[in-house]
Design a protein that fits this description.
The complex is a heterodimer of chains A (464) and B (466).
Chain A: E1 4-5, E2 20-22, H1 46-54, E3 60-65, H2 68-72, E4 92-93, H3 98-103, H4 106-120, E5 124-129, H5 131-136, H6 140-151, E6 154-158, H7 167-179, E7 194-200, H8 206-216, E8 220-226, H9 231-235, E9 242-245, H10 248-262, E10 266-268, H11 274-288, H12 291-319, E11 323-328, H13 331-343, E12 347-353, H14 358-367, E13 373-376, H15 380-389, E14 394-397, H16 402-407, E15 411-414, H17 425-440, H18 455-459
Parallel strand pairs in A: 3-4, 3-5, 5-6, 7-8, 7-9, 9-10, 11-12, 11-14, 12-13, 14-15
Antiparallel strand pairs in A: 2-13
Chain B: E1 24-25, H1 32-40, E2 46-51, H2 54-68, E3 75-76, H3 81-86, H4 89-103, E4 107-112, H5 114-118, H6 123-133, E5 141-144, H7 153-168, E6 176-184, H8 189-201, E7 205-208, E8 224-225, H9 234-238, E9 243-249, H10 260-268, E10 272-275, H11 281-295, H12 301-321, E11 325-329, H13 332-344, E12 348-354, H14 361-368, E13 377-380, H15 384-394, E14 398-401, H16 406-412, E15 416-418, H17 436-458
Parallel strand pairs in B: 2-3, 2-4, 4-5, 6-7, 6-9, 9-10, 11-12, 11-14, 12-13, 14-15
Helix pairs in contact in B: 1-7, 7-10, 12-17, 13-14
The chains are: A alpha/beta (464), B alpha/beta (466).
Domain Nitrogenase/oxidoreductase component (chain A): 45-440
Organism (chain A): Coraliomargarita algicola
Protein name (chain A): Nitrogenase iron-molybdenum cofactor biosynthesis protein NifE
C-alpha cells in the first residue's frame, strides 16, 4: 500500500537499528559497516570514492574503464575549480560494449590511453577500474605500464571496482594512486614553514581563500590535495613540513603514508566557521613555534572577524531557536556544522554522516546537545522520519537530501561538493549564514501544506 | 609556463591534432538502468530496484533528482566483493525484504546492472526462489535486463515498457472502446499530462506507460509519502490488452524487433498506431489524425484554434528564423521530432546527434526533414566531443539539447536552448512542454526568441525594437 506516513509511522530496519542513536541513551552505536541491501543508502560505491578524491587534479587525464554509466554520471557534476587547466571537467570512458566485456577491454583501454595522451598532453593519467573490469580481470596495471613506457606519461591504475568495499575503500585506492606520484620530483624552493592542504577540494574556490590566509601568515602551501590539484605539486608535496588534513575520510590514508615514509606530521583541521578556521591557523602557527606567525594569525583573525561578524550577528537574531538536521558525507564537516549552526543561534537535532568512523562519532556525540539523533549511513525514509519527528526548520545535505526537505516544507542548505558557493573560511561563514537565512526566512514556507494545514478549508470555505 | 592543456576548453578539445576515436569523451547517453528507473517511476506504488553495486542506484538517483527535483528512491542489492564472486542471490532476497518492509510497494521493478549481468545472475530464477520462499506473498516483481554495456538509457526505457506489458497486460476478447494505450518516448512530465488531456478532448481515456507526470513532478506534501503518489496502476496495465488502440509515440520503436506497442498488437490484438514524438505541426497532425480515427470524432475546435494560432505564429516570425541553422542532440526520438519541427519552420538542423545506435535512425530522420538531407549531418552513437568538433566546423546558429551542451555553446558564443534530459542548470526542465500544437507553440517561441535575443545581444547598437 502506498500510504501517507508521518514520522512516527516510519520504522528503522532491524539491520540498521544500531546505526541510529540518541544522545542521552545508553544504547550501543554501530558504524563503519557495509550498507544493507535494499536500505536505499545515500552512499555511492568504492568507484565513486576514488573518483571524487582524484577528480580535481586538473592537469591529469581521468579515464573510467568500464561501461558508460559510471563515467557519465559524474561528468563535471562537482564544483571543484581549477585556476588553470580544465581537463578534469571532461568525462573519458572506454565505454565497454558487450564484445569487450566478453573478450576483454585491454586493447580498447590501451588505444584510448595512447590517443587521449597524444591529444590532450596531460601531466599524468589515472585509470579507474569499475565493477566490470574488476570482474573480467583486465590487467589494467600491465596496460598502464606499457603506455607509460610508450608515452613517457605516468599512467596510474586506480583499483576501484564499485563492489570492492565501501566508498571509503575507494578513498584508499585513490590515496594509493596519488601516492605513486609523491616523491617523483625535486623539492627545491620549499620553505621551512610549508604545508600541504589535504582533503580540500576547492569547491567554489575555497582552496584559494584558505591558501591566502596561509600566505598572509607566512606559510607556503606546497600542494592543495586535491582541489585545484596539479600533478607536479603532488610529485613534490613530500617536501612540505606539515600536512593539514581537512576531509579526513578521504585523505587520512595519504597523510599516513606521508607521515610514515617521509616523516611529515599531520593535523586535522577544519576551515568551516570562525572558530575552526581561527583554530586551524593558530594550530599551524603553534606547530611551527613561530611567535611572529602567531601574531600575524591573531591579527588576521581579528581583522576578518571584524569584517563579517556584524552581518552574522544580524542573521543570528533572525535565526535564533531554529532547529537543524544535517546529513553529510564526512564527519569532520558535521562537527564544524554543529558549531557553525550554534554560532547562528540554531540547534542541531539530527546529525549524520555517510562515512564516519567510531572515533568521529564519539566526537560528534560529545559536541551535540542531549536529545540529538545521530545516524550512520542513513536513507531517505529515516531522514524524513526525523525531519518530521524533530520538526526541523532547516536541513543541510546534498542533492539527494534536498527533495526530502523541500517536499515537507523545510528549508535546505547544500553543503556537499556540488554547491557553487564557497562556505569555507571567514568569508564563507557569511555565505553560510546568508544561504541558511535565505532559505529559512523565505516567505514561501507558509504555502507548504505541512505548514498551513488550514489552507484547504480557507480555499474552500463552507467545505469544513 | 603555459602547459599544453591550457588551451583546453571546458568542452575538452584543443584546437589541433587528430581526434581520438577509441575512447568515449563526454558521452551523449546514459546507461540502460536509468531508463528502466524512469519507467518504473511511472507506475503506481512501484519501487525501482537495481541488482548490482549500490553506486549505480545512487548515481542514477542523483542524476534524476538534479533534473526533476523530486524524491527518487531507488533500491540496490548493494553487492560486496563476495556477492560479485558467489552471486547476488542472498543480497537480492535480503534487499527485497528490506524494500517491502520499508516502502510497502505495490510493485518492485527489478533491473539488472552490468555487474549482475556479467556474473550471470539468473534473475528470473532468483525472483521465483524468492517468491517460493515467501509463498508468493507481497508485491509482484517485474524484471528487465539492462546491462549498461549494451544500448543506452533509451533502450533501457523501452525494454522496460516491453517487459511490463509482457508481464501484466492480459489478452482480452472485448475492447474498451474509449480507451487508448499511449507508449510515450522519454518525454517531460508536462508532455505526459498534455497527451492525457488531448485524449480526453477526443472523448478517450488513456493508459500511459509510463506515466511519471505526478511521481516526478508532484505537489508539496503534508505528510511523508514512502512512494510518490501517481503513476499507472497495475489494473490499468492489465487492461492495456483490451484497449481499442495503442499509440506508440516513438520513431525508434517502429524499427526494433519488438516494442510494447507491437507486443500489445501481436499478443492482445490491439491495433497499433506507430507515430513519432509529436513536435511541430506535421508530427502533431499525425497524432490528432490518429486520435480522430480512433474516437470517430473531428478535431475539437479548441485544438483547431491552437493549430491556427500556431500557423499564424509561424508566419509572424518566419523571417527571424528562416535560413538559420541549428545543432541538436539527445535521445533518438527527441532529435527526430525536433529536427522535423525545425525543418518545417525553416531552420536547418545541420547537425543531428544522438548517443544511441538505434537501427535505421538516419533513415528515420531523413524521412522527417523537409528540404532533404543534403546539408544535414546525422551522427548516431556519438559523444559530445565529436559533436563539438563537428559544430566548430559547421558553426550552427543555435544549439538545442540538454544542459550538457553548455560548454560548447559558451565556446561557440551561440545560444543553448535547453531541451530534453537532463536539464540541471536551469529550473523547470520537467515541465517544459514539447508535444502537440501547444507544446510546439512554446518551443517555437523559445527558438525564435533565442535568435532575437542573440541578435540583440551581439549587435553593436543594441536594438530595442525588432
Amino acid at each position: 500500500m502506498n500510504t501517507v506516513t508521518t514520522g512516527d509511522s516510519i520504522h528503522v530496519l532491524d539491520d540498521r537499528a544500531a546505526q541510529v542513536w540518541t544522545k542521552g541513551s545508553s544504547k550501543e552505536f554501530a558504524c563503519d559497516r557495509k550498507s544493507t541491501a535494499g536500505a536505499v543508502t545515500q552512499r555511492a560505491c568504492a568507484f565513486c570514492g576514488s573518483r571524487v578524491v582524484l577528480y580535481p587534479i586538473a592537469d591529469a587525464l581521468h579515464i573510467v574503464h568500464g561501461p558508460i554509466g559510471c563515467a557519465v554520471y559524474n561528468w563535471d557534476i562537482r564544483g571543484a575549480l581549477s585556476s588553470g587547466p580544465q581537463l578534469h571537467r571532461n568525462s573519458f570512458s572506454t565505454d565497454l560494449a558487450e564484445k569487450e566485456v566478453i573478450f576483454g577491454g585491454e586493447k580498447k583501454l590501451k588505444a584510448s590511453l595512447i590517443e587521449l595522451i597524444e591529444f590532450y598532453k596531460p601531466k599524468a593519467a589515472f585509470v579507474y577500474s569499475t565493477c566490470i573490469v574488476g570482474l573480467i580481470g583486465d590487467d589494467v596495471e600491465a596496460i598502464c605500464k606499457q603506455v607509460t613506457q610508450m608515452t613517457g606519461i605516468d599512467c596510474i591504475p586506480v583499483d576501484s571496482p564499485g563492489f570492492k568495499g565501501t566508498k571509503k575503500s575507494g578513498y584508499q585506492a585513490a590515496c594509493e594512486a596519488a601516492y605513486k606520484l609523491v616523491g617523483t620530483a625535486k623539492t627545491d624552493g620549499i620553505k621551512k614553514h610549508s604545508i600541504n592542504l589535504m582533503g580540500e577540494f576547492n569547491i567554489a574556490g575555497e582552496a584559494w581563500m584558505i591558501r591566502k590566509y596561509f600566505e598572509r601568515i607566512g606559510v607556503q602551501v606546497v600542494a592543495t590535495i586535491t582541489g585545484d590539484g596539479r600533478v607536479d605539486d603532488l610529485r613534490r608535496c613530500h617536501g612540505a613540513s606539515l600536512n593539514l588534513v581537512q576531509c579526513s575520510g578521504s585523505m587520512t590514508h595519504l597523510s599516513k603514508l606521508l607521515e610514515d615514509k617521509h616523516g611529515i606530521p599531520m593535523k586535522r583541521v577544519s576551515f568551516f566557521g570562525f572558530e575552526d578556521t581561527a583554530q586551524a591557523l593558530y594550530d599551524t602557527a603553534e606547530h611551527f613555534g613561530d611567535s611572529e606567525m602567531m601574531d600575524k594569525a591573531e591579527a588576521l583573525v581579528r581583522e576578518e572577524i571584524a569584517k563579517y561578524a556584524p552581518r552574522i550577528k544580524a542573521y543570528k537574531k533572525q535565526l535564533k531557536g531554529k532547529k537543524a538536521a544535517l546529513y553529510v558525507g564526512g564527519a569532520f564537516k558535521a562537527f564544524s556544522l554543529v558549531l557553525a549552526l550554534r554560532a547562528l543561534g540554531m540547534q542541531t537535532v539530527l546529525a549524520g554522516t555517510q562515512t564516519g568512523n567510531a572515533e568521529d562519532y564519539e566526537q560528534l556525540k560529545e559536541i551535540c546537545d542531549p536529545g540529538t539523533v545521530i545516524v550512520d549511513d542513513s536513507n531517505p525514509l529515516e531522514l524524513a522520519k526525523f525531519v518530521l519527528e524533530k520538526d526541523v526548520d532547516l536541513f543541510i545535505g546534498g542533492v539527494k537530501e534536498r527533495p526530502i526537505a523541500y517536499k515537507l516544507g523545510v528549508a535546505f542548505c547544500d553543503h556537499n561538493h556540488e554547491r557553487k558557493i564557497p562556505l569555507a573560511g571567514f568569508e564563507g561563514m557569511l555565505h553560510f549564514a546568508d544561504e541558511v537565512a535565505r532559505s529559512v526566512l523565505s516567505p514561501v514556507w507558509k504555502f507548504a501544506p505541512r505548514r498551513s494545514l488550514h489552507m484547504k478549508t480557507n480555499l474552500n470555505p463552507g467545505n469544513d | 609556463m603555459a602547459t599544453n592543456t591550457d588551451c583546453t576548453t571546458t568542452a575538452g578539445t584543443p584546437a589541433l591534432g587528430p581526434e581520438p576515436e577509441a575512447a568515449t569523451r563526454n558521452a551523449c547517453k546514459l546507461c540502460a538502468p536509468l531508463g528502466a528507473a524512469m519507467v518504473f517511476k511511472g507506475i503506481r506504488g512501484c519501487l525501482p530496484f537495481l541488482h548490482g553495486s549500490q553506486g549505480c542506484a545512487t548515481y542514477i538517483r542523483r542524476y534524476m533528482i538534479s533534473h526533476f527535483r523530486e524524491p527518487v528512491d531507488i533500491a540496490s542489492s548493494s553487492f560486496s566483493e563476495d556477492d560479485a564472486i558467489f552471486g547476488g542471490a542472498r543480497n537480492f532476497e535480503l534487499g527485497i525484504e528490506n524494500v517491502i518492509s520499508q516502502y510497502q510497494p505495490e510493485l518492485i521493478g527489478v533491473a539488472t546492472t552490468c555487474l549482475s549481468e556479467t556474473i550471470g545472475d539468473h534473475m528470473l530464477g532468483m525472483i521465483k526462489t524468492y517468491q517460493d520462499n515467501h509463498q508468493a506473498e507481497g508485491p509482484p516483481l517485474v524484471h528487465v535486463s539492462t546491462p549498461a554495456y549494451s544500448g543506452t538509457h533509451s533502450d533501457g526505457y523501452f525494454a522496460t515498457t516491453l517487459a511490463i506489458v509482457k508481464k501484466f497486460a492480459l489478452p482480452s476478447n472485448f475492447r474498451l472502446s474509449h480507451r487508448v494505450n499511449i507508449i510515450p518516448a522519454m518525454m517531460s512530465c508536462a508532455d505526459l499530462r498534455h497527451i492525457r488531456e488531448l485524449c480526453e478532448r477526443y472523448g478517450l481515456s488513456s493508459t500511459l506507460l509510463p506515466d511519471y507526470n505526478a511521481t516526478l513532478e508532484g505537489g508539496s506534501w503534508d505528510a511523508y509519502h514512502r512512494i510518490s503518489p501517481g503513476g499507472t496502476s497495475l489494473e490499468e496495465i492489465e487492461e492495456m490488452g483490451a484497449s481499442t488502440a495503442t499509440l506508440e509515440l516513438s520513431h525508434s520503436q517502429a524499427n526494433v524487433k519488438q516494442s510494447a506497442g507491437s507486443y500489445l498488437k501481436s499478443a492482445c490484438g490491439v491495433p497499433l498506431h506507430s507515430l513519432g514524438w509529436p513536435i511541430g505541426i506535421r508530427l502533431s497532425d499525425q497524432l490528432f489524425t490518429s486520435l480522430s480515427e480512433i474516437s470517430g470524432r473531428e478535431m475539437p475546435s479548441e485544438i483547431a484554434d491552437e493549430r491556427a494560432r500556431l500557423v499564424d505564429a509561424y508566419v509572424d516570425a518566419h523571417k527571424y528564423v528562416s535560413g538559420k541553422t541549428a545543432a541538436l542532440y539527445g535521445e533518438p526520438d527527441f532529435v527526430i521530432g525536433m529536427a522535423a519541427f525545425l525543418s518545417e519552420i525553416g531552420v536547418r538542423p545541420i547537425l543531428c546527434a544522438t548517443g544511441s545506435k538505434t537501427p535505421q535512425w538516419k533513415e528515420l530522420l531523413h524521412n522527417e526533414i523537409e528540404g532533404g538531407m543534403a546539408d544535414v549531418e546525422a551522427l548516431a552513437g556519438v559523444d559530445h566531443a565529436k559533436l563539438a568538433s563537428r559544430a566548430r566546423e559547421r558553426k550552427p546558429d543555435l544549439l538545442i539539447g540538454s544542459s550538457k551542451g553548455y560548454p560548447l555553446a559558451r565556446e561557440l558564443g551561440i545560444p543553448l536552448l535547453r531541451c530534453g534530459f537532463p536539464i540541471h542548470d536551469r529550473i523547470g526542465g520537467q515541465r517544459q512542454l514539447y508535444v502537440g500544437y501547444r507544446g510546439t507553440q512554446q518551443i517555437f517561441d523559445r527558438v525564435v526568441n533565442a535568435f532575437l535575443e542573440a541578435k540583440q545581444e551581439y549587435s553593436k547598437t543594441g536594438y530595442s525594437y525588432l
